[in-house]
Amino acid sequence: MGAGRRPKPTAIKILEGNPGKRKIVADDLQPEAGAPEMPKGMTFAAQREFRFMTEVLLELGVLTRVDGKALAAYSECYSRWEEANKIITEYGQVIQVKFLDNEGNTIVGDLKANPACKLADMWMNRMKSFLIEFGLTPATRSKLKLNPKPEVDEFDEIMNRTRRSPVGFQAPSLEEPSVEIVNKS
């Protein structure tokens, strides 16, 4: 296969509104939509991220049952990025180099960048690659045409709830008048 852009999954093409009116074929022999099984052996932080991203991707309708390994790889990148950031938080972005001389005395050296900063950047870039694949960066998401969920008015929701009432008592409906006016002429 030659160099160039990798083809987008059909679900992403559909969410983008099929720009360019490309014909969507069964590349299309898409696997069954749904939550993939979480691979065993993942770190706790990766498991937490796997569960979170599974919910997000299912809601968007772009997750299939065979996406588990890609999602696990993203989640492990997230876990390692999180770990690198904890080290940066603990020791700072800049550390002072210390070493021992020939007599065993500690010598304080120059300041240098914390190696965890380079690791955090590396894991963040790998996470970004996976996020692009799943259509979850601001740039890729802006191309998706999602059907927004209708906003629910809290007041209407409260007013439309089924009322609980004592046995034998029928609460009046808010939509029907509870008093009937009869014209006596």
Question: Could you explain the architecture of this structure?
Answer:
- There is one protein chain.
- By secondary structure, the protein is mainly alpha-helical.
- The chain has one domain.
- Helix content is 42%, strand content 8%.
- It has a two-stranded antiparallel ribbon with strand order 1-2.
- β1 and β2 (106-113) form a beta hairpin.
- The longest helix is centred in the middle third of the chain and has 24 residues, at 68-91.
- It is elongated, with a radius of gyration of 28 Å.
User: Number of helix segments?
Assistant: 6
Order of helices and strands: HHHEEHHH
* Poorly predicted ranges: 163-181
| Residues in β-strands, percent | 5-15%
Distance from N terminus to C terminus (CA atoms, Å) equals 91 Å
Count of domains: 1
Topology of this structure?
Layout: H1 10-15, H2 44-60, H3 68-91, E1 94-100, E2 106-113, H4 115-133, H5 138-142, H6 154-159
Antiparallel strand pairs: 1-2
Key descriptive features of the protein:
single chain; about 180 residues; mainly alpha; two-stranded antiparallel sheet; 6 helices; 2 strands; about 40% helix; elongated
Concise account of the structure shown:
With 185 residues, the protein is mainly alpha-helical.
